[in-house]
Amino acid sequence: MPGNDATRHRPVRLDTRRGLAVGGFLLAFLLGGCDPGPPGTIPPPEQQADWRSAPAAPAPIWPREDWWRGFKSPELDGLIGTARVNSPDIAAAIARIRQADAQLRIAGAALLPSLGGTGNASWQQVATGSLGRSYGARAYTDLHSYSLGLNAAYEADFWGRNAATQQAALATALFSRFDRQTVALGVLTSVAGSWFNALAFSDRLAAARDNLKDAEQTLAVIRGRLDAGTASMLDVSQQEALVAGERANLPNLANQMEQALLGLSTLVGQPPAAITARPGTLATLSLPELAPGLPSELLTRRPDVASAEAQLASAHASVAAARAAFFPSIQLTASGSFQSAALATMFGPGAMLASLAGGLTQPIFDGGTLRGQLEQAKGRQEELLADYRKSVLQAFTDVESALTAYRFTTEQEGLQALAVTTARRSADIARAQLAAGTVDVTTVLTAQTTLYNAQDTLVQVRVSRFQALLSLYKAMGGGWTRADVDAPGLAPGRIQGGVALPIGSNLE
C-alpha cells in the first residue's frame, strides 16, 4: 500500500556492523574455498658416508680452477684458453644469464610503485555571435587549455605473490649462473678429451710406423734367405702380407687423428683451418693427483647439483605465487595535476586537482584456471625434486665411476707396459734367430704381431687412463665452488636465506 511522501522518499541506511559481518563472511567463504592445502616437506636425498671405490684420503685434493694446466701441455692450455673466449656454447650460456637477470628485474618491478606523467595542451576556436545581418560576419573566441599531471599506482603485496614471483626469478637467475659453469666445464673437458684422443692416435700412428719399419727390415732378411736358398716364396709372401697390412693401417690412424683435431673446431669456436696445434705424445704429459673429500662436500662443488637445487627453489617460489593468486589483490592509485586556461595561472592554487583511490579484486569463478595453475606448479615442483635427487645420485655415481676407471686403468697400464717389454724382447730374439736360420718365419710373424698388438693396446690403455682422470676432474666439479657465483642484484646473505631451498624445509 503506498505511503506518504515522507515514507516513500526516506533514504535507505544499512547497519554498519551488519555490513561488516556480511562482508567478512563472504570474504572468509571465498578465501576458504580457495585454500590450496597444507604445505609439504622435501625429504633429504640419500647420501653415503664414504667412497666405495677408494679409501679415505688423509686430505682431499680438489681440482684447481685452472685444472687443465696440471697436465703440462702448452697446446692444451692454448686450446682451452681459446674455448673459454670463443666457445658458442659458453656464449649462449652467458646470454641466458642476461635474459634471466632481465626477467628478475621485471619481476622485481611489481614490488615497487609505478609512476607516470601526463601533459596536454589544446587550442580551440569558438564562434561567439554575429557582427551584422547584412554581412553575416561572426565573432570568434580562442580557447586555450593546459594540463600537467602525475599518476602513481601500487599493488599492495599482502599475500606475497609478487615477492614469490621475484624469488622464482632470482632462483632462475642463479640457475643460469650455475648452468653457465656446468656448460663451461663440459666444454673444457670435451676439449681436453679430444686433445687426448688426438695424442693417442698420434702415438698409435708413430708405433705403427715403427712396426712397419721393423717389418720391412725383417722382409729384407727373408728375401736375403730366399736368395741364399734357405727360405721359400711362402715365407716371403707371409711377411709381405704383414708389411702390407701395417702400411694400410697408417691412413686409418692418420684419419682418426685429424678427425679428433677437427672435432676441436666447434668446441673452441674457430673454423677448422684455424686449428694449427699438432699432437705430440701422451708420454710427455703429467697426471696430476686428485683425492675426493667426503661425499657430502662434493654436493657443494658440483654446478649441476647447484643448478638442480636452484630450479627446485624457483619451482618452490612459483607454487607460493600460484597459491597467493587465490587471494584478493589490492591496488592503490593516486594522481595529481594542474589544469588552467593560461600558462601564467597554471600553477595557482585553483588550478590543482588531486585524487586517491583504492580497489580490491577477488577471483570468484574462473572455471578452474587458478586451481589448474597451482596444480601445474606443484607438478613441476615434483618433477624438479626428482631431477634434484637424480643429480645428487649422479654426482656420487660419476665420482665412483671415475675413481674405479682410473684405478683399474692405472693398474692395466703398468701390466700392459710389462707385456710390451716382454713382447719386444721376444720379437728381437725371433728376428735374431731368423737371421741365424734357427727358426722359421712363422715364429717371427707371431712374435711381430704380438708386439704390434701389445704396443697399440698400451696406447689405448694409456689414453683411457687420461680420460678417466679427466672424468674425475669433471665429476669433482672442475675446481668450482658456490662462492664463485656472483649474486644477481642481491646480497649473498639474502640469496642464501631467501632462495636456496634447504633439504628438509617446507616444499610449499
Descriptive account of the structure:
The chain is an alpha+beta fold. The chain folds into two domains: 36-111 and 157-327 and 369-498, Outer membrane efflux proteins (OEP) (Up-down Bundle), CATH 1.20.1600.10; 120-156 and 334-361. It is built from twelve helices and four strands. The protein has helices spanning 5-8, 16-33, 74-86, 88-109, 161-228, 233-262, 264-268, 295-298, 303-324, 369-436, 441-475, 492-498; strands at 114-130, 138-156, 329-340, 352-361. It has a four-stranded antiparallel sheet with strand order 1-2-3-4, with no helix packed on it.
What is the radius of gyration?
40 Å
State the name of the first-level CATH class of the largest domain. Mainly Alpha
Could you give the distance between the termini? Answer: 61 Å
Query: What CATH architecture of the largest domain would you give?
Result: Up-down Bundle
- What's the helix count? 12
How would you sum up the global shape? elongated
Number of domains: 2
Estimate what percentage of residues fall within beta strands: 5-15%
The largest β sheet comes out as:
4 strands, antiparallel
Number of strands: 4
Outline the low-pLDDT stretches.
1-41, 490-508
Structural category is alpha+beta
> What series of H and E elements makes up the topology?
HHHHEEHHHHHEEHHH
- Portion of residues within helices: 55-70%
- If strands are numbered along the chain, what order do they take across the biggest sheet? 1-2-3-4
CATH homologous superfamily placement of the largest domain: Outer membrane efflux proteins (OEP)
Any idea of the CATH topology of the largest domain?
Outer membrane efflux proteins (OEP)
